[in-house]
Design goal:
The chain has about 1000 residues and is of the alpha+beta class. It has three domains: about 55-370 and about 380-595, Cytochrome P450 (Cytochrome p450, Orthogonal Bundle); about 605-640; about 650-975, TolB, C-terminal domain (Neuraminidase), CATH 2.120.10.30. Helix content is about 35%, strand content about 20%. The chain is built from 25 helices and 42 strands. The strands form 13 sheets. A five-stranded mixed beta sheet has the order 1-2-7-4-3. The longest helix has about 35 residues, at about 605-640. Mean pLDDT is about 80; it is low at about 135-140, about 470-480, about 485-610, about 630-650 and about 765-785. The chain binds protoporphyrin IX containing FE. Protoporphyrin IX containing FE binds near residues 86, 347 and 424. Its cofactor is heme. It comes from Rotaria socialis. Pfam families: NHL, p450. This is Cytochrome P450.
């Protein structure tokens, strides 16, 4: 197979100019195909790609899903930034996600959102009108504005949420979530270009990024919670058209239980997975679509005849708002959009990794398992073998799609959305969005060419391919395209629906005095002509909108009265006090305004070299940081001598092979020697284990050494009677040797005296409710009354007893708080959290296990969803971090992934059941770097060195370790030696 000889570390990237000369990859692969043929190798840094440009081979790849799965390179990158999103998954987890995510974009669902798309576009149009009336603010940044439009649309359509990107052009005032999303997107794009290990370090060290992720998670969580607060009937109704309603409907009922199943048997999505998908849809959904929109504007400016034809097609509708059916019937628009995706697919190509050896059907090239094939979309769209007709393939000719044979070719050789089982799931939505926006733009605006300096053809590579000189993302200066109003721009349509939950403010400025030195000037008003603020709630078509349009018309009429052909020559525009611009603004009766800008000073030719030098400097800085990161701990250890290290490593070490002391590995069951997903193990003198045998609805007592246990609480059946338990997930023993059980699904805590056949409810209401319709209330009957009053609990998952004060602490999981109950009291008080979920230090987020340290009067809380262990002193109003990083899960020494339980030894060292990392972590007193003392990080299994989703951990008086190895249905003992 042809290949360019690779260079050390850079592969073919430096020599081909991807690095250093900013050669866009679409152009590079076109050139390489001409030189090397249909199949060749390309070294993307240290990664070997096999580039395939032969259509038949591409079809072969897309058709053989079992042989060609998602590209590993994508998966690796995505695992760093969003490990729970469909794009970065494969195998059974991908299947589970795709059955939920793909239907979200079904035609019926997305068609309902056409009005929203048009409303948002109108908002952008209003903004442009204001610019044109205000000469000091005329610079348009089309990339950024397109992104803002697409983000706002996506916010409304997918999440009923107003991201407000079109409200405020001044980015310093942008919405907190939008700001965080931008940081997240930018960082994700940046790290995708770094070697994996540097990317990993960069993300850990990047404080801004971590903060942004926390903010995003907080907002996404709120959106989910808001949806959950709707009534069941409303939610069912909303599922027909609302993406967030459907996503929330897929939430697993019992996340803890699902986590213990094998991937093949899991159903639904966990909360974190839903949040991962939400974030992925936001990023996958806006970036390529906005790139396509930018291309549309660019191409319209370069191909005025196409623009006229499009406008002609719309003439019969005047400025009417088009329905989805009407949009679908626009043949020429359809050709324009198809041609756009052939001519300039926004994404450069896609990747697949071979799961077995295979031979390409047309070229006969032999591929091996693990090879990565890259399919460059541009090469197929520009290959004359696959396109008939006389139209030049290097030109934009929508008419080629009027030829029947090309309509067919288009299906295969124009593959901007990829193909096969991993093709883009949002493509119908993207097409609808683009068409609706383009129609609206064509109804109200015209795009003209601002000249080669500012509107040059060519390509720029970011995460997408963009026109070379619609720049300004950074500089914000050049006006690229002349945008002029079409006729009658005042007659916006009435009766519009704007699906915003928040208010929308529209302020239109009349043209100010344009310039004091104007030969002729229009003077309307010195002050902004404010139309006032209009607010309207969601899903509503209101008079306010009418009011707004009326005001617009009034304004326009006012303008028209004064308007007459005008020519204005302006020789200076003050920008930062400098004379740096020559502009001619002219306007005609139709309100068309032409602008001619001299571009801002062009960057020197050395731009690429500069960037390369900057890249090298950055690389050096990063290497320096890594060096420091490695050296500092070494030097500090060196400096502090043997003080901390030696005694503990000598004393504290455990055998890595566990001994099964209760249950049968992998064999769940309800006999006396079996367990079913035990969640917590508690050790008590002399050598007794109490086990919350979750799925068997009982607590088992084992004398260590005996292979069978006895039931000491619950009768094995689930229910809410006092002799029953319903998924008990935690157990402890009080000073009277009574068993305290977190009776999780009964939303109560039960106390069982030794030998008793029934328990006493000591916290939570947990009463039966009256049955009206058995099917409907079935779950509640058995689950007791959940709530967040002081006498209620919601899925209590942890209990800890303080013998000094005869007090019980309860991790009130779904209420994101820890409750304190004095024995005998029917109401509790809030001991920690209770301020809603979140990751700030006054909040908890799904506290699971807990440990009361009577020595220091601190509560140690496994703050599961926040991925931390926190310490909350009694009577304090906030926590301090003990282990993990709030809001960030991970599997390195400082991070945790769903910590579910925590215990303390007498020396103040902390032991954590790091559930999703399948390990037990030890954090020495005062240390934030954890040591794995049982299990192997991120590797689950059932042999004696491995764990499978450990939920609970405890120690005996010799500091031997006991682990509730939930997924293996057993309790493991790790002996200290
Ligand atoms: C013009 C707009 C768009 C373009 C050009 C585009 C292009 C692509 C491409 C090339 C892929 C990879 C396909 C493959 O590997 O075969 C992809 C995947 C994906 N796209 Fe799009 N996309 C667009 C819009 C959207 C929108 C609006 C959404 C959702 C809101 C979306 C969601 C996704 C998702 C979730 C995947 C991953 C599918 C998987 O891994 O199985 N895309 N897209």
């Amino acid at each position: 197979m042809p290949v360019l000889p690779p260079q050390f570390l850079f592969g073919n990237m430096l020599q081909t100019g991807i690095v250093g000369r900013q050669i866009p990859m679409n152009i590079l692969f076109l050139q390489l195909k001409d030189k090397l043929g249909d199949v060749f190798q390309f070294w993307f840094g240290p990664m070997r790609l096999i580039v395939v440009s032969r259509l038949e081979d591409v079809q072969h790849i897309f058709a053989h899903r079992h042989l060609y799965d998602q590209g590993d390179m994508f998966i690796n990158i995505l695992n760093l930034v969003n490990p729970n999103a469909i794009i970065g998954l494969k195998g059974p987890k991908f299947k589970r996600h795709t059955t939920i995510i793909s239907p979200l974009f079904r035609r019926a669902k997305i068609s309902a959102h056409a009005d929203t798309i048009i409303d948002c576009t109108d908002k952008l149009l209003n903004r442009w009108r204001n610019y044109n009336n205000n000469p000091t603010d005329i610079h348009l940044n089309l990339i950024e504005q397109s992104q803002q439009l697409l983000l706002t649309i996506l916010g409304f359509v997918a999440f009923d949420y107003d991201l407000q990107t079109l409200d405020e052009e001044d980015r310093s005032n942008e919405n907190e979530l939008t700001h965080a999303l931008c940081i997240n997107f930018k960082t994700s794009i940046f790290v995708a270009r770094l070697p994996m290990f540097i990317a990993r370090i960069y993300l850990v060290l990047n404080y801004e990024y971590r903060q942004a992720r926390m903010t995003i998670d907080r907002y996404l969580q709120q959106m989910i919670d808001q949806e959950l607060r709707e009534t069941a009937v409303t939610r069912t109704q909303r599922r027909k058209t609302s993406l967030i309603a459907s996503l929330v409907a897929s939430l697993q009922e019992d996340e803890l239980f699902e986590a213990t199943k094998s991937e093949e048997h899991k159903k639904g999505l966990s909360q974190i997975e839903v949040m991962g998908e939400m974030l992925a849809l936001l990023s996958a959904g806006y970036s390529p679509t906005s790139a396509a929109l930018v291309w549309f504007m660019h191409l319209m400016s370069k191909y005025p005849q196409v623009q006229s034809k499009l406008k002609n097609e719309l003439v019969e509708y005047n400025l009417q708002r088009l329905s989805v059916e009407q949009i679908d019937s626009l043949t020429y628009l359809d050709c324009v959009i198809r041609e756009l995706f052939r001519f300039v697919p926004p994404i450069v190509g896609t990747l697949r990794t071979l799961t077995a050896d295979d031979r390409l059907s047309a070229t006969g090239v032999q591929l091996s398992k693990g090879d990565q094939v890259f399919i460059p979309f541009y090469n197929l769209g520009r290959d004359s073998r696959y396109w008939s007709g006389s139209f030049d393939l290097d030109q934009f000719h929508p008419e080629r799609f009027l030829i029947e044979s090309n309509m067919n070719s288009n299906k295969t050789a124009s593959i901007a959305f990829g193909g096969g089982h991993r093709q883009c799931i949002g493509q119908d939505f993207a097409r609808l969005e683009l068409k609706a926006i383009c129609v609206r733009l064509m109804q109200h605006m015209s795009f003209g060419d601002g000249g080669p300096d500012v509107n040059e053809s060519g390509y720029k590579q970011t995460d997408t391919i963009l026109p070379k000189h619609i720049d300004g993302y950074v500089t914000k200066k050049p006006i690229v395209i002349k945008i002029s109003r079409s006729n009658n721009h005042q007659s916006l349509q009435t009766g519009s629906t704007f699906k915003s939950k928040s208010s929308v403010h529209i302020i239109t400025r009349a043209a100010n005095k344009i310039h004091p030195k104007a030969q002729k000037s229009i003077e309307l008003s010195q002050n902004p002509y404010s139309l006032g603020n209009f607010s309207w709630p969601s899903h509503h078509s209101l008079g306010n909108m009418q009011q707004c349009y009326d005001a617009h018309s009034t304004l326009h009429n006012h303008y028209q009265k004064l308007n007459h052909p005008v020519k204005l020559l302006k020789t200076s525009t003050i920008l930062s006090g400098e004379m740096n611009d020559i502009r001619e603004v002219s306007s005609n009766e139709n309100g068309t305004i032409y602008d001619h800008h001299r571009p801002t000073k062009k960057k020197t030719k050395k731009n690429g070299v500069h960037r390369f030098i900057i890249a090298i400097i950055l690389l050096l800085i990063i290497s320096g940081i890594i060096l420091i990161a490695v050296l500092v701990p070494v030097l500090t250890k060196f400096g502090s001598g043997t003080k901390t290290e030696l005694p503990t490593t000598h004393v504290l070490r455990w055998k890595s092979n566990g001994i099964t002391v209760a249950g049968l590995t992998g064999l769940q069951g309800n006999t006396s020697y079996q367990l079913m997903q035990p969640k917590k193990v508690f050790w008590k003198r002399p050598n007794i284990l109490y086990i919350a045998d979750y799925q068997n609805n009982r607590v088992q007592r084992y004398e260590i050494g005996s292979s069978s246990g006895t039931t000491v609480a619950g009768d094995g059946s689930f229910g809410s009677s006092l002799n029953q338990l319903y998924y008990p997930s935690y157990v402890t023993i009080d000073s009277n040797d009574e068993i305290v059980v977190a009776d999780t699904y009964n939303n109560r805590v039960q106390l069982w005296s030794t030998g008793s056949t029934s328990g006493i409810k000591i916290a939570g209401t947990g009463n039966k409710i009256k049955s009206i319709c058995l099917m409907l209330v079935f779950k509640q009957i058995f689950s007791g009354v959940a709530g967040n009053s002081l006498n209620q609990l919601q899925l209590p998952t942890g209990v800890s007893y303080d013998s000094n004060s005869n007090t019980l602490y309860i991790a009130d999981y779904t209420n994101d708080r820890v409750m304190r109950y004095l024995y005998g009291a029917s109401n509790g008080t809030i001991a920690a959290g209770g301020n809603g979920f979140g990751i700030t230090n006054i909040k908890l987020w799904r506290p699971a296990g807990l440990y009361f340290d009577s020595f220091s009067n601190n509560l140690l809380i496994a703050n599961a969803n926040a991925q931390t262990i926190v310490q909350w002193p009694l009577n304090a109003s906030n926590w301090t971090l003990v282990a993990g990083c709030a809001g960030t899960s991970g599997n390195n020494a400082t991070l945790l992934n769903y910590p579910m339980d925590v215990v303390l030894d007498p020396m103040g060292n902390i032991y954590v059941a790091d559930r999703n990392n399948h390990r037990i972590q030890l954090f020495m007193n005062g240390q934030t770097q954890g040591i794995t003392i049982a299990g192997v990080t991120s590797m689950f299994g059932s042999n004696d060195t491995l764990l499978n989703l450990p939920f609970g951990v405890t120690l005996d008086n010799q500091l031997n370790l006991y682990v509730a190895d939930t997924g293996n249905h057993r309790i493991q003992q790790f002996l200290r030696y």
